[in-house]
Specification:
Helix content: 40-55%
Shape: globular
Number of strands: 15
Strand content: 15-25%
Order of helices and strands: HEEEHEEEHHHHHEEEEHHHHHEEHHEHEE
Largest sheet: 5 strands, antiparallel
CATH architecture of the largest domain: Alpha-Beta Complex
Strand order of the largest sheet: 1-2-3-5-4
CATH class of the largest domain: Alpha Beta
Number of helices: 15
Radius of gyration: 27 Å
Structural class: alpha+beta
C-alpha cells in the first residue's frame, strides 16, 4: 500500500513512525500525493512512471542548487517510484487571490502577490536554465513542432469537433501549420526553462509570504513566453485586462535583467503564445469536460472562451478566427431559464433538453398521497381541494422549505456565473397530485423571488406554462 511505503521512508528520515498519512485531493495527473504528519510534516508522492520521477528528482536538485525556491526531496524509495518532499507552504497563489478571482477586482495586495510570481517566473526560466542538462527532462528535452501540432490537434479533436461547429479541415490544417511555424520562430536567446504549467495553483506561499514553485516535472527547453501566458491568462483566475497589462510589463522589465530581447517582437510572440496556451487548455477542458463530463472542467470553459474573445481576430488565421468567433458567440452569457417539471416515476425521469445534463430531481413519494382517496382521484395538484389536503398537516411545506433552500442557492450561483439553464423536477407515483403541487409552487417561488424566466411543465397532464423574466 502507498501508506506503508511512505511510512517506511518517513521512518528512515525522521526516525519514528508518522502519526498520520492522509491522501491529498486528486490532481490533474496520475501521481498520488499524501500529507504525512508527525514530528516533521512532509509530502509523500507515489509516481506512476519512473522516467518522470527521475526527471523531477533531477530538476528538484538542480533548482535547489541554483538557489530557486522548490520543495527539497529528502528520501527516495529503492525502486524510485516514491519520494518525500519538504512542505513549502499551505496556501496556493490561486487561493490567495480568491477575492479578485470572484469579483474581477484585484486588490493592491493581490496584485503584489501576482507581481512576485511574475518576478519569480523570469528568474526561474533564466537562472534555472543555466547548466541544466536538458536530456534529463521528460518526456522530451525541448518543445518541438510535433509538440505544438499535438496540442493544436488536441484542441481540434477534443474541443472544436465536440462543440458542433462546421470545420473546413484543409484550411484549418494549413493555418495550424503556419501557426506552429510562428510559435517556434523565437530567437534561441529567448528560450529557457519552460515549466509548461506555471499557473497559480502551482505557486505555493508560506507563512512568511515567500513563494515556491511545484509540479515542474513536465518542464523542458522552450520559448519563455509560454509560461507567462499560462500564468496571466489562466482561465479560472479571470484577471482583468488592466492587471494582465500591468503584469506583462513587469514581466518584460524583470526578464530584461536576465536576457536581451526586442520588446515589440516579444509582445507579438506573447500574443501567439496566449492563443496557443488557451487552445491547449480548451483541448483539456473539452476532453475532461465535454467527453468525460467532469463538472469542474465544464464550468471552466466559459472563462477560457472569454480569453479567446479578447484575442480575436487572428489576422494570419481567418479560418481559425471564424471558428473561434462561433465558439465565443455560443458562449455569450444568456439569461437563466429554470425548467420545472412534474412527472410520474412509472414513466421515467424527464430528459434534459438543454444538453447540460443533470439538475435536481426531488422524490415526493414520501408525502401523504391524496391519490389514495376517491374524492381526489380526478383532480390534480393544481386544484384547490388537493392543495388544501396537502397543506393541512404542513408536511409538504416543510419538504418544500428544504427544497427551495437548495434550489435558491443554485439559482443565485448560476445567475452570478452567467449560466443559461437549470432543470428542477418533482416526481411521484402518478405525476398527478404531489409532484404537480410541488412543481407549481417551485415555479411560482422562483419567478416571484428572482424574476427569472421559468418554464413549467406538468408532463403527465400535458400542461405547460411560461413565467417570463421581469
Amino acid at each position: 500500500m502507498d501508506e506503508n511505503k511512505l511510512s517506511a521512508l518517513y521512518i528512515k528520515v525522521v526516525g519514528e513512525t508518522p502519526q498520520s498519512v492522509t491522501r491529498l485531493p486528486v490532481s490533474g495527473s496520475s501521481r498520488r500525493y499524501y500529507m504525512i504528519e508527525g514530528r516533521e510534516r512532509l509530502i509523500g508522492t507515489i509516481g506512476t512512471c519512473r522516467e518522470e520521477n527521475e526527471s523531477f528528482l533531477y530538476l528538484s536538485e538542480h533548482f535547489a542548487d541554483a538557489g530557486l525556491p522548490v520543495p527539497l526531496v529528502v528520501a527516495v524509495s529503492e525502486d524510485r517510484m516514491a519520494y518525500l518532499q519538504t512542505v513549502v507552504g499551505h496556501t496556493s497563489l490561486f487561493d490567495a487571490i480568491a477575492s479578485g478571482r470572484e469579483t474581477g477586482i484585484y486588490s493592491d495586495a493581490e496584485k503584489l502577490l501576482i507581481g512576485q510570481a511574475v518576478d519569480l517566473l523570469a528568474r526561474f526560466q533564466t537562472v534555472g536554465a543555466r547548466g541544466l542538462d536538458w536530456q534529463q527532462c521528460y518526456p522530451v528535452s525541448e518543445i518541438s513542432r510535433r509538440d505544438v501540432m499535438w496540442d493544436l490537434n488536441y484542441f481540434k479533436y477534443c474541443f472544436l469537433k465536440p462543440s458542433g461547429v462546421e470545420i473546413d479541415e484543409a484550411r484549418l490544417e494549413d493555418e495550424m501549420e503556419a501557426f506552429a511555424t510562428r510559435l517556434l520562430d523565437v530567437p534561441q536567446s529567448e528560450w529557457g526553462f519552460l515549466h509548461r504549467d506555471f499557473q497559480s495553483r502551482n505557486i505555493i506561499i508560506n507563512a512568511r509570504g515567500e513563494m515556491s514553485v511545484i509540479d515542474f516535472q513536465g518542464g523542458r527547453h522552450g520559448p519563455v513566453y509560454y509560461d507567462i501566458a499560462a500564468l496571466l491568462w489562466q482561465a479560472r483566475a479571470r484577471m482583468p485586462f488592466d492587471v494582465k497589462t500591468e503584469m506583462t510589463a513587469r514581466y518584460f522589465d524583470t526578464l530584461s535583467k536576465y536576457i536581451s530581447f526586442d520588446r515589440e517582437a516579444a509582445e507579438r510572440h506573447l500574443r501567439d503564445y496566449v492563443l496557443f496556451r488557451t487552445l491547449q487548455v480548451l483541448g483539456a477542458y473539452g476532453f475532461r469536460g465535454l467527453v468525460e463530463r467532469k463538472p469542474h472542467f465544464i464550468e471552466s470553459i466559459p472563462a477560457a472562451l472569454d480569453n479567446v474573445a479578447a484575442l480575436l481576430p487572428v489576422d494570419e488565421s481567418p479560418c481559425l478566427t471564424g471558428l473561434l468567433g462561433q465558439l465565443v458567440e455560443k458562449n455569450k452569457k444568456k439569461d437563466l431559464t429554470v425548467t420545472v417539471t412534474s412527472f410520474s416515476y412509472k414513466k421515467g425521469i424527464p430528459a434534459d433538453g438543454s444538453g447540460n445534463g443533470g439538475g435536481y430531481v426531488f422524490d415526493c413519494r414520501a408525502i401523504h398521497n391524496p391519490g389514495r382517496y376517491d374524492r381526489y382521484k380526478t383532480l390534480t395538484g393544481m386544484d384547490a381541494p388537493v392543495i388544501e389536503f396537502l397543506e393541512h398537516d404542513g408536511e409538504v411545506l416543510t419538504f418544500l422549505e428544504h427544497v427551495e433552500a437548495l434550489v435558491d442557492a443554485s439559482v443565485e450561483r448560476y445567475v452570478k456565473r452567467g449560466f443559461s439553464s437549470l432543470m428542477v423536477s418533482f416526481g411521484c407515483t402518478g405525476g398527478q397530485h404531489r409532484s404537480v403541487y410541488c412543481a407549481q409552487r417551485m415555479a411560482e417561488h422562483l419567478s416571484g423571488k428572482y424574476g427569472i424566466e421559468v418554464a413549467l411543465c406538468h408532463r403527465e397532464q400535458g400542461v405547460t406554462r411560461k413565467f417570463p423574466a421581469r
